């Protein structure tokens, strides 16, 4: 039993096909199990000729792809993606080496309403477990990293639900604090995930062994990043808690680039809430209208709950920054930016923004001093 299975709620009951995780993991529309089982050994040998042959052998006819369900299309993109990333890691542009894969990637992108290559969701959440696990290296450490990201998915789905509810409420509504408390419970899985990563994935392994497999590839003249952990959109939680009206241009620019790697419903969530009034904005405005020493109980509860979830986000980001600093230290790094396209300095900026918003809420609840007689 994996760490993901311990925390997985009943996502299989959802109508959204991208949440039908067990079905996607079970699917093998390309008949790729045997070929992909050999990939770690081929990668150890840096055998680009064998990888090219494997990719060419798996490319399906477009007529066949046209008959696939969304579940099958997601699984097909997952399996092609392992070979795309492997070829690029060894210095070969995969679409240039196997041109016939281009229309297939574009069609899979259209059928799944996602980018025309694999994402972090293909590599982790939708990846089979056990003997069928798709892997670049076949190592236990890589499996731990996949499981650490995989365990976040159920909590993130649930957090987006409570954040959507939060956006419709005002701080005086008792449900505002309740929605924040439920969001905090869901965000805890992200803190657990980063702790699991710290315990099981050495920065050296990520920087030197795995990071090269996450490089961007060229698809019809446009670069698409590999399955980076930054594509797990914790920033959608930021959006409704503070980012929609309390961000900065660098973070906004990063999100504009990252949002295209999200699931369609998550992109819709971003579009619906971008530019709205955040929970921090609503609460601080409400508190500013109150005078005297007594804050209404509903606002006090909201402030306590919002501070709690912001503290969890801050904890996650501080630990993530610690990992990134080690993996991208001058003595270790192979790349200037993270696999999600952002420099380590941006992680520091987002941590500071999260801390600033936590402090703003905390200060807003401090009663004014009574002037001395």
Automatic annotation (TrEMBL):
GO BP term, pick one: L-tryptophan catabolic process to kynurenine
Domain of life: Bacteria
A Pfam family assignment: PrnB
Family matches, as InterPro entries: PrnB, Trp/Indoleamine_2_3_dOase-like
UniProt GO MF annotations: heme binding; metal ion binding
Protein name: PrnB
Organism this protein belongs to: Streptomyces kanasensis
């Amino acid at each position: 039993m994996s760490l993901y299975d311990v925390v997985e709620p009943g996502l299989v009951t959802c109508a959204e096909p991208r949440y039908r995780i067990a079905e996607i993991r079970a699917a093998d529309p390309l008949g790729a199990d045997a070929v992909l089982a050999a990939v770690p050994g081929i990668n150890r040998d840096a055998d680009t000729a064998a990888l090219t042959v494997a990719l060419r052998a798996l490319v399906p006819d477009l007529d066949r792809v046209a008959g696939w369900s969304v579940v099958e299309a997601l699984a097909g993109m997952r399996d092609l993606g392992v070979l795309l990333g492997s070829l690029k890691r060894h210095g070969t542009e995969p679409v240039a080496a196997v041109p016939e894969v281009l229309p297939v990637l574009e069609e899979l992108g259209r059928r799944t309403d996602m980018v025309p290559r694999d994402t972090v969701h293909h590599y982790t959440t939708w990846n089979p477990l056990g003997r069928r696990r798709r892997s670049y290296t076949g190592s236990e450490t890589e499996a731990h990293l996949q499981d650490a990201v995989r365990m976040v998915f159920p909590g993130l789905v649930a957090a987006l639900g409570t954040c959507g509810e939060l956006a419709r409420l005002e701080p005086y509504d008792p449900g505002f604090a309740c929605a924040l408390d439920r969001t905090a419970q869901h965000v805890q899985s992200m803190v657990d995930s980063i702790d699991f990563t710290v315990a099981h994935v050495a920065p050296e392994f990520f920087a030197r062994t795995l990071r090269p497999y996450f490089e961007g590839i060229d698809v019809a003249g446009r670069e698409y990043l590999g399955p980076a952990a930054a594509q797990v959109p914790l920033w959608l939680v930021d959006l409704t808690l503070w980012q929609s009206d309390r961000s900065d241009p660098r973070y906004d620019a990063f999100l504009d680039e990252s949002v295209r790697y999200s699931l369609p419903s998550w992109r819709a969530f971003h579009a619906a809430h971008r530019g709205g009034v955040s929970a921090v904005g609503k609460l601080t405005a409400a508190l500013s209208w109150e005078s005297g020493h007594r804050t209404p109980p509903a606002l006090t509860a909201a402030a306590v709950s919002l501070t709690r979830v912001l503290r969890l986000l801050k904890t996650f980001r501080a630990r993530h920054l610690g990992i990134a600093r080690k993996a991208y230290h001058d003595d270790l790094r192979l790349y200037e930016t993270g696999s999600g396209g952002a420099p380590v300095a941006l992680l520091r900026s987002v941590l500071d923004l999260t801390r600033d918003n936590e402090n703003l809420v905390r200060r807003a609840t401090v009663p004014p001093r009574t002037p001395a007689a």
